[in-house]
Amino acid sequence: MFIDSFWSLLPPIIAIALALITKEVYSSLFIGIVVGGVLYSGFSFTGTIEHVFVDGMIAQLSDSWNVGILIFLVVLGTMVMLMNRAGGSAAFGKWAVTHVKTKVGAQIATIILGMLIFIDDYFNCLTVGSVMRPLTDKHKISREKLAYLIDATAAPVCIIAPISSWAAAVTGFVDGVNGLTLFVRAIPYNFYALLTIVMMLGLTCMKFDYGPMKQAEEHSKIKELKVSRDDNGGLLGAVDQPAPPVSVKGKVIHLVFPIVALIVCCVIGMIYTGGFFDGAGFVDAFSASDASVGLVYGSVAALIITVIFFLATGVLGFNECMNAIPEGFKSMVPAILVLTFAWTLKAMTDSLGAATYVAGIFENLTDNAAIMSFIPAVVFVIGTFLAFATGTSWGTFGILIPIVVNVFGSNMGNELMIISISACMAGAVCGDHCSPISDTTIMASAGAQCDHIKHVSTQLPYAMTAAAISFVAYIISGFVRSWFICLPIGIVLMLVALFGLKKGLVKGWN
To answer: Any idea of the CA torsion for 154, 344, 56, 41, to the nearest 10 degrees?
Structure first.
């Protein structure tokens, strides 16, 4: 009775509710996992234990994709630690303070960097966080605001970038259609991603915040960085350790060079896994790439190059470089723990048939011809709910995109199909953006070194604002079916909403 029914959504609902109520993510996720195991086993004690640990946690940690992501995280943690110890981050902070002299400028710089690193959302979150923290800290921008800027330039940018791991994932879920062509045509209809970018720029240029984020920003103005970090508990609630020694020889190049090496090596690693060096074209190789493996190849190569560069420039010794490896690993332990729990919770919902249940609801709706024009809005809502409950946008793509293609057929001339595919991608990103069990949300918290639940609670009103306006835009697009009309309407609605929030015309969040 619990399989393929509403009960399948109970574990993530419980985990998310507890996390938001208790502000403690580890126990909340674990309780949700146990509830899933209990429902799957039919309240059998031994069955629950076996399903939670064998079918759930051990299986997830044995999955090659997940292991690749964990290795990537550890290497990135090591890279960040090396850049910090080499003095690159400190040198960049000093340089940025002399060139970026306003709070608005610091936020714009963060947004621009986030939009430039569109290859992969994990890569985006941790790289932007490590680079921009010194600058945003100097201008007393809260870690919650930094986490939002990182999160809002991770998945929302990747989902509108044709050359990214996300584009590769989407095209892989489309059968009988040129996936990359469909992806490109769907970009102008990806209202949530585009409006999120408009919202970030609007909030920054209009110099205001609302809801819990406003309180976080006000708090950051009256407290020094050290106090703020202690209040936030460091990275995802971890206790800050004494700062390691920083080389006085460090220059900006000791931050820029490793990041450029990381970007170049990760691109090469991804196209290598897609068969580029076996004759495949660049775009085809990216579409066929294995992001998990490619990022491991690229990050390890970049780490080796960085160590050689630091040794050659004399900024760090060999022993100091090697000591940074376990330190980098330790810095990522909280993020790895949360990711492990989030993946296990997803395994519980998958075993209970949550995806099948939600997909069934959608298929029943599409049988009604009277609501076909509302299909994009319906797809957006279902995609948002599914990604929020499961914490995965890619899983949502895999469930909904094939259904949408089957409903409309493989007719690329059907504009409503293009809009609906885009609504699926937008809804998946929206739900992923809101969910405390989403890996991208977890990575944004890690990149900003912000308490995870504080990041979720401060970001949620912003995400809900963009989601509400996107929903209206999808209703309009279902009838008008032209992004030339619908996208400008959405942008105007977003700017009007922001103006109303700033002036106090919208009550409750200001």
So the answer is: -140
